């Protein structure tokens, strides 16, 4: 029976290596000229900007900038307008080098950096300086796209002599990155006082959806925009307010070869945020968003890893891939109450609620991934003014360390086994807050607690790292008949599509050497079944 085989060309993401690291970035940031000294820090927020990675021989250098924003109560002379809440920004930088001995320029790198915690220290003896500490978690994965021809089936050899493996891969169709500026206006709703001065703006990407079209991907979503501002109000009224609105966006990213029913992976990153004060009712924000889109097609391929026979000569290649088991996304709303500590004034109004994932753990189990973690909730609020205090004070409250809000979920992914690898993403997508435990004091409602409703998105993808040698090509070796070739030669039987160049490449020799060993053949007219003598010194059959 003739020996035949099938082969398939696949494009895979060859895993070079991956690494994780944690770092605390600390730096003093200073109040700029023109702003008053600090009496009390209300809140400090931090955002990542301009994260860049550079692949070098032997590793990956990751650099970035953290923009820290400080909301504070300023020391204002009594003869000046009493609007004591101010805002300023400063930048912290970080650099890391991740060692990957096989790294080379031109490979692909995936970098995922998250801010785990922001803390600060203010010394009254240095009223223009705040020390900011930002805890970062960093994940770096280095890959290289490779097109590999794999042998998927062999006939003519007993099945028990063929070793095969089922490989589940994401066949990479293509990827692209584009950057776009999304502009929108935040309009004051009825009942809000007019804007005198904008303290700070923020933006978060929410509700991202994708649609694959021929040769491209349409990405849609919303940007939640917010602005904390000083209002133009009568003396004695609370001047700090918060304005929010949603901006819709649509972006088309070209990806050659993309078709409906394929799988799309997106990563949207806010690279920069700026604003213009239009008038007393309007703030315009410009959000620079980077869109990364990768289109893949899940495939299950049966690959041949070994053939035990002296009838064929096989070529192997090392394959290192992540075998995709499955993935899923779940959403959950966490509701919990934050009590205002006794040393802080009771609350009259919430200005801005926020929440951050502090830390979480992911564990693979039978048929799924178990996620558990902590959420830090915080709020800027208007407190009850003390006797003789001219303005209602602005205060900040957060869940104390060790008493964070907790969450846990089991994400069903059939086929998962303990010990498999999982890539997870947990993020806060929406925060609502309301005052609770309230009572009326001197005709004013005051509250001692804040109830949070926090929507979190959880994504889990389970993979199994596999390293194996796969058969990428084979040639049939026919035993020589008497006097067909000299004793020091092996007979090769010409297959469909063969040329002398292809045969020479397989046997790691040259066309001239084969012509010299077979003077009677026509190099331009090989026939299927024709036998060619190959010197034994070039190739040895594998048994």
Automatic annotation (TrEMBL):
<dbReference type="Pfam" id="PF12673">
    <property type="entry name" value="SipL"/>
</dbReference>
<dbReference type="Pfam" id="PF01476">
    <property type="entry name" value="LysM"/>
</dbReference>
<dbReference type="GO" id="GO:0008932">
    <property type="term" value="F:lytic endotransglycosylase activity"/>
</dbReference>
<dbReference type="InterPro" id="IPR018392">
    <property type="entry name" value="LysM"/>
</dbReference>
<protein>
    <submittedName>
        <fullName>DUF3794 domain-containing protein</fullName>
    </submittedName>
</protein>
<dbReference type="InterPro" id="IPR024300">
    <property type="entry name" value="SipL_SPOCS_dom"/>
</dbReference>
<feature type="domain" description="LysM">
    <location>
        <begin position="490"/>
        <end position="534"/>
    </location>
</feature>
<dbReference type="InterPro" id="IPR036779">
    <property type="entry name" value="LysM_dom_sf"/>
</dbReference>
């Amino acid at each position: 029976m003739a020996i035949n085989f099938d082969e398939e060309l696949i494009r895979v993401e060859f895993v070079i290596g991956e690494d994780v690291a944690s770092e605390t970035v600390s730096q003093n940031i200073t109040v700029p000229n023109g702003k008053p000294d600090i009496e009390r820090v209300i809140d400090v927020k931090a955002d990542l900007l301009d994260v860049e990675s550079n692949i070098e021989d032997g590793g990956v250098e990751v650099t970035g900038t953290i923009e820290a924003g400080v909301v504070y109560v300023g020391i204002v002379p009594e003869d000046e307008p009493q609007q004591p809440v101010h805002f300023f920004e400063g930048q912290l930088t970080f650099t890391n080098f991740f060692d990957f001995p096989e790294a080379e320029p031109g490979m692909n790198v995936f970098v995922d950096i998250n801010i785990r915690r922001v803390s600060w220290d203010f010394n009254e003896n240095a009223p223009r300086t705040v020390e900011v500490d930002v805890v970062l978690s960093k994940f770096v994965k280095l890959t290289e796209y490779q097109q590999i021809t794999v042998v998927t089936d062999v006939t003519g050899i007993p099945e028990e002599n063929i070793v095969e493996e089922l490989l589940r891969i994401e066949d990479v169709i293509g990827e692209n990155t584009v950057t776009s500026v999304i502009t929108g206006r935040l309009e004051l709703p009825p009942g809000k006082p007019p804007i005198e001065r904008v303290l700070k703006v923020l933006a978060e990407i929410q509700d991202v959806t994708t649609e694959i079209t021929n040769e491209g991907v349409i990405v849609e979503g919303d940007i939640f925009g917010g602005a904390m501002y000083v209002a133009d109000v009568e003396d004695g009224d609370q001047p700090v307010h918060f304005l929010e609105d949603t901006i819709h966006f649509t972006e088309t990213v070209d990806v050659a070869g993309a078709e409906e029913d394929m799988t799309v992976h997106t990563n949207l990153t806010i690279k920069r945020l700026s604003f213009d004060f239009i008038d007393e009712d309007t703030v315009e924000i410009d959000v620079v968003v980077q869109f990364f889109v990768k289109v893949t097609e899940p495939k299950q391929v049966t690959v041949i890893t070994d053939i035990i026979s002296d009838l064929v000569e096989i070529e192997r290649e090392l394959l290192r891939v992540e075998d995709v088991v499955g993935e899923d996304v779940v959403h959950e709303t966490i509701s919990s109450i934050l009590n205002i500590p006794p040393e802080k004034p009771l609350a009259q109004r919430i200005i801005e609620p926020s929440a951050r994932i502090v830390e979480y753990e992911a564990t693979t189990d039978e048929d799924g991934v178990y996620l558990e973690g902590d959420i830090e909730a915080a709020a800027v609020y208007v407190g009850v003014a003390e006797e003789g205090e001219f303005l209602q004070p602005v205060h900040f409250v957060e869940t104390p360390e060790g008493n964070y809000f907790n969450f846990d979920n089991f994400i069903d992914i059939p086929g998962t086994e303990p010990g498999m690898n999982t890539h997870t993403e947990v993020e806060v997508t929406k925060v609502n807050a309301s005052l609770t435990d309230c009572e009326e004091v001197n005709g004013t409602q005051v509250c001692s607690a804040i109830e949070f409703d926090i929507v979190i998105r959880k994504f889990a993808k389970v993979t199994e790292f596999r390293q194996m040698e796969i058969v990428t090509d084979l040639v049939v070796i026919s035993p020589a008949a008497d006097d067909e070739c000299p004793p020091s030669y092996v007979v090769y039987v010409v297959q469909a599509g063969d040329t002398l160049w292809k045969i020479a490449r397989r046997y790691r020799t040259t066309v001239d050497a084969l012509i010299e060993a077979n003077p009677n053949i026509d190099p331009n007219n090989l026939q299927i079944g024709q036998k060619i003598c190959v010197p034994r010194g070039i190739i040895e059959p594998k048994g």
